[in-house]
UniProtKB/TrEMBL annotation:
It catalyses: L-homoserine + acetyl-CoA = O-acetyl-L-homoserine + CoA. This is Homoserine O-acetyltransferase. GO terms for molecular function: homoserine O-succinyltransferase activity. Its EC number is 2.3.1.31. Gene3D superfamilies: 3.40.50.880. The record marks S192 as: Important for substrate specificity. The keyword Acyltransferase applies.
Length: 301
């Protein structure tokens, strides 16, 4: 089944060229199927790139999925055209009375700031609180995961001595958990972050389960016991060249601490190799199927 997206969204043409089945709104309206309603709070600077990455991962679902793109009203994005934001995005005030089957909160390049110093922190807190009663399950990614863990469970982020940057091997700890069903015992995830989660506080929580970890990158996948909150510290949605683009950006800024991403390039070359795509797709499919579709009511009260 297809993903349901606006006719003129830039991601539509890209996904169709990759033979991912997309359906425009007019065709979806005439199908007698209730789509899964997913709201994506997109905090990444390159919003069109992030839209395409997330829709690609959800595009192989057997479900019809309808997306609403959300941005904070208290922050003005600098890297996306105003016309694109006006056409495809909305703000929290327009959806606060609605119910959604799932929500995705993306990362954001603001790790150096305390949560309380983020310009839209108060609005984000309001959205996260709203999600507890208006969303069946929420998937938080990278900084979004750290923000969600801090808000919902009081788990703080900690600074790392150097950036966790590269593609790292992870071990599945909860092999019978539905979210990692079908996973190999070892799998790969890209990471790009200067901060980590306070592990002492995380392990002390009786509301959370650690599902996978990495010897080099630390904890990766966490889920609440009621399955309403999922936290992902890496970036499995990244394209093959995304880490390379970040590396070249940092090199161009003459940052003294820049190191090449680990375990990312082919041996004896500077060509990236993608070793995370299959598990990334499976993770998003498992979340959409087990945590969203099979748990959400057909009709919200």
């Amino acid at each position: 089944m297809p993903i349901n997206i606006p006719i003129h969204l830039p991601a539509k043409q890209v996904l169709e060229s990759e033979h991912i089945f997309v359906m425009d709104e007019s065709r979806a309206f005439h199908q007698d199927i209730r789509p899964q309603r997913i709201v994506i709070l997109n905090l990444m600077p390159k919003k069109i790139q992030t839209e395409t990455q997330l829709l690609r991962l959800l595009g192989n679902s057997p479900l019809q999925v309808h997306f609403t793109f959300l941005i904070p009203s208290t922050h003005t994005p600098k890297n996306t055209a105003r016309q694109h934001l006006d056409e495809f995005y909305t703000t929290f005030s327009s959806i606060r009375d609605k119910k959604f089957d799932g929500m995705i909160v993306t990362g954001a390049p603001i790790e150096h700031l305390a949560f309380e110093d983020v310009s839209y922190w108060e609005e984000l807190k309001e959205i996260l609180e709203w999600s507890k009663s208006n969303v069946t399950s929420t998937l938080h990614i990278c900084w979004g995961a750290q923000a969600g863990l801090y808000y919902h469970y009081g788990i703080e982020k900690v600074n790392l001595p150097k950036k966790t940057f590269g593609v790292f091997e992870h071990t599945v700890l909860e092999k019978n958990e539905r979210l990692v069903r079908g996973f190999d015992e070892l799998y790969y995830v890209p990471h790009s972050r200067h901060t980590d989660i306070n592990m002492e506080q995380l392990e002390a929580s009786d509301e959370l389960r650690i599902l996978s970890t990495s010897k080099e990158a630390g904890v990766c996948l966490i889920a609440s016991k009621d399955e309403k909150q999922v936290f992902l510290t890496g970036h499995p949605e990244y394209d093959t060249n995304t880490l390379l683009q970040e590396y070249e950006r940092d090199v161009s800024r003459n940052l003294s601490s820049v190191e090449a991403p680990k375990h990312y390039f082919r041996e004896d070359s500077k060509e990236p190799v993608n070793r995370w795509k299959a598990h990334a797709t499976l993770l998003f499919m498992n979340w959409l199927n087990y945590y969203v579709y099979q748990e959400t009511p057909y009709e919200w009260e």
